[in-house]
Amino acid sequence: MKVAIVCDWILGIGGAERVVLELHRLYPDAPIYTSQYDAKKMTLYEGFQDADVRTGWLQNLPGALKKFLPVLRAWYFSRLDLSEYDLILSASGAEAKAVRPGKGKVHICYLHAPTHYYWSKYEEYVKKYPDDYKWFNDKSLILHEKKQYQSAFDVISSIDISKIPSTNTWALWTIEGNKCLFLSSLKRLDEAEKHCDAVLSINPNDSQWLQLKSIIFDTRGRYWEALDLVNKAIANYNSSEYPFFWWIDLYYNAKWLILFHLWKLDEWLEFLNKTLEQNPENAYANSNKALILTKQWKHEDALIFINKALEIERNEWAMFQVKGFILSNLNKHSEAIEYYDKALAFDPNDFVANYTKALSLFALERYQESYDLSLKASKLTTIQASEKEYINESIWIMCFTLVLLEKYKDWLV
């Protein structure tokens, strides 16, 4: 039986580290996965000298990004691939408990007291440091990670900017940037663009926010401007500032979508192939290649790429939507609906997921359900410019299902 041990971090000796040490003594051959490890300090303690401690990119996190550490740890552990292990033993009071076992495998967590500054004692920390924007910023990021977008925006908006010195451009950059991010998630794009511009006024060449602004423009149908911005973001990308392999992948993913909306399929495919040559494990590139292959009626080939994408990134709603679309094209509509439902579990008001699910319901002759879902899709207030091409088709489905249901009066209305 293959065993892995997981913990939040190992930077000193305390109660949590002693639990990890006992687990290591029980399973001496099991590797220990953690976010950060102070090897120089920990080898002074008996028991850790022979431990196989494994870290990832968080081990070398730049100081400028320390403020994102709680959210990055949650992201890191939730995507840590431990599928080869039969048993995962985690000792966690923070984010390591988010680790996921492989299908049919077991995860047992020794849960310490919750991290107090996240939950029960958060307000005590805020009272102790009332003018420290970092507490509010960290809390807003945690809420955003939990998809509580409005609460995240409310928290970040409660910071009194007048108490922050104008010379502290880092704080102002952080606050304005997070407002842009949260408003984008809320699909309040006009407001998001203003805050994005405020960030770029501090640093016009900041690749992170150039990329986010390109997504805002793409969503609003301003594709050529979006393409200029994402090209500038890629050109200005600084690997020492954002050293993670997946960060530049986010920029590439934005460019793929823009090229798709401009219907530059050959250029899009060429760009995807170059990306996959550099990193075959890029989940977004595999997913996007699957999408373009199914657009070219190569559905079986598309299925291979989307399955690989979902092996790498097992909980990405957009990839569920792509797989549903491919299965629909293969006339596997019942299976397609399962994946559309997975996508809709993340965002019940996603227009494309509702619309494509309605198509599969129609194909299965479940006309009333298809009509109801098409009606819901056509009335969504969150429809973006990049989705409007589907609206007429959604209305057509509604009309045709009404005919089949013999509700001619409703059709005339």
Rg over CA atoms, rounded to whole Å, is 24 Å
List low-pLDDT spans.
407-413
User: Helix-strand pattern, N to C?
Assistant: EHEHEHEEHHHHHHHHHHHHHHHHH
Structural class: mainly alpha
Share of helix among residues? 55-70%
Quote the distance from N terminus to C terminus. 65 Å
Question: Largest beta sheet, briefly?
Answer: 5 strands, parallel
Number of helices: 20
The averaged pLDDT comes out at: 79
Strand content: 5-15%
Strand order of the largest sheet: 3-2-1-4-5
Number of strands: 5
Shape assignment = globular
Which short descriptors sum up this protein?
mainly alpha, 59% helix, 413 residues, 5-stranded parallel beta sheet, single chain
Architecture overview:
With 413 residues, the chain is mainly alpha-helical. It has helices at residues 15-26, 39-42, 69-78, 122-128, 133-145, 149-157, 169-185, 189-202, 207-219, 223-235, 245-261, 265-278, 283-295, 299-312, 317-329, 333-346, 351-363, 367-379, 391-404, 408-412; strands at residues 3-7, 32-33, 53-54, 87-92, 106-111. Strands 3-2-1-4-5 form a five-stranded parallel β-sheet, covered by helices on one side. The relative contact order is 0.05. Residues 407-413 have low confidence and may be disordered.
How does the SSE layout of this entry go?
Layout: E1 3-7, H1 15-26, E2 32-33, H2 39-42, E3 53-54, H3 69-78, E4 87-92, E5 106-111, H4 122-128, H5 133-145, H6 149-157, H7 169-185, H8 189-202, H9 207-219, H10 223-235, H11 245-261, H12 265-278, H13 283-295, H14 299-312, H15 317-329, H16 333-346, H17 351-363, H18 367-379, H19 391-404, H20 408-412
Parallel strand pairs: 1-2, 1-4, 2-3, 4-5
Helix pairs in contact: 5-6, 5-7, 6-7, 7-8, 8-9, 9-10, 9-11, 10-11, 11-12, 11-13, 12-13, 13-14, 13-15, 14-15, 15-16, 15-17, 16-17, 17-18, 18-19
